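request received
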Amino acid sequence: MNNAQIAAVLDEVADLLEIQAANPFRVRAYRNGARTVRELSEPAATILCTAGRKLTEFKGIGSDLADKIAALCQTGSMPLHQELLAQIPVSVLTLMRVPGVGPKKAAALNKELGISTLDELRAACQAGRVRKLKGFGEKTEQTILAGMELAGSVNQRLTWAEVDGFAQSLMTHLRACPSIAELEPAGSYRRGRDSVADLDLLVVSSNPAEVMDRLAAFAAVETLLGRGDTKMSVRLAGGLQVDLRVVPAESFGAAWQYFTGSKDHNVELRSRAKSRGLKINEYGVFRGDQYVAGRTEEEVYATLDLPWFPPELREARQEFAWADAGQLPKLIETGDMQGDLHMHTTATDGRASLAEMVAAAQDRGLKYIAITDHSKRVSMANGLDATRLRAQWAEIDRLNKSLRGLVVLKGVEVDILEKGGLDLEDDVLAEADWVVASLHYGQQQPREQITRRIVDALANPHVCAIAHPTGRLINRRKPYDVDLDAVFRAARQHGKFLELNSHPQRLDLDDVACAAAKSHGIPIVISTDAHGVEGLDKLRFGILQARRGGLTKADVVNTRPWAQVKKLLRDRRAT
DNA sequence: GCCGTTTTCGGCCCGACTGTTTTCAGTCG
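response:
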């Protein structure tokens, strides 16, 4: 049983306990445990089998949870989980996906009306039976019906890049308000999460009503979800929820910190404040009733002797431990990048020619690029066989003679075949400057098979890196069932790199996997996988993800000049 | 159920808004 599966069971136990109105701190303990397991850099099962190691060495897992996880790994099920499932149909949990329905209402609906599915809930609302329940009313019934429309259609997270589009145009729209003194995005968007459920905007204004009216007038606004004196929520066409908060200037830093989150980061921060006799809320830091700080984020953190944290790190993972040790990493920045080692041309499925990609790379100030078109197995993309590939490389050789300031590398994205092995012969690969291997077919294969294919590819002496190592497409396709821990170990053993693909729908390795790869000592390559000139601008999405993984300039291969990348590959293979 | 420079018990972050309430519970972030 892998970490994701263990975490899913723990999360479901938390949900079920919540419906049973269990001690909320007990519920939180299961959620924290789930999160800890999900973010472990190695399989829990491995730790359990290793002498001298215990799961309790990780924050959030005590002896009780450690025992339950051990039982889960050994037997495939957890007695508490099974008991709860016998009491509450698992489908009741889906009721909580409807906005406005939390654990209490879901429990009441199930207990009083015997409702356990969304269809039953819809029917009961339409029949007017829900409004008769204590604590429910006509409004609630309407909210539930409206919320169910949503849950079925648009209630999914958007990619960061999609939200960025809305955020930029909405902020431009709002800035027309003369009373706005500050306007900043917060929430998971500011933290750079690869997908974002809603957009939080923070405003300092002498006239909150004017700002809210202006938001209501934004063309994409579809529904007004709520509006108070300081807070307003709307839903945009396409489903994105926007939450606007207006705060006084002396609270701006505290509010920005608070609304940026994450929730867990804030819990840790406030708990630290409490232990010092301070209280932190969105209005500031207080000792008793006395305002201590709050105008800037730096000020808020400084009251706890903490440094300002880059938003990407605020996930209550390592950042507090790093700060306590005075070792907060200096995160990689877009300007650190020197080259791009994964892109396509019209020779396969790209939309721009070799010459156009080269010109675009020069425009963007890149020092080197690798042209890595697909190999022949990817027939849909008109993949290259040895002959066509060598012809492209000859063209690159000619091109390089006339280029100044940019080196074009002879590369290929060689397919990892379904039955294992690579799509091109070793003698061909040996002529390349840069080889990335990736799999496009047989993505549904069982874990052992997929893992074996990737691990074997890493063992090939000509392969430099594995591209998009999990194959996930955010909101569209789950990652392959691959044992990433085994991939990390193989990459380390053979001195290879792993790619962080910057395409906003891919972004794999994800943030947690980046951090895990780093802990295994594996250098990361951040690539655009550009299929056109505009694709070269997607690097910033990959950088954001890398920052979330805590990566520095030194952790990323292509912040170095090409000569150093080559040397790094050589040196690592030698050891 | 977890955790510990208040250390094995007694805490566990904090507030806005809504709807159903007549003083507050539930939900959300």
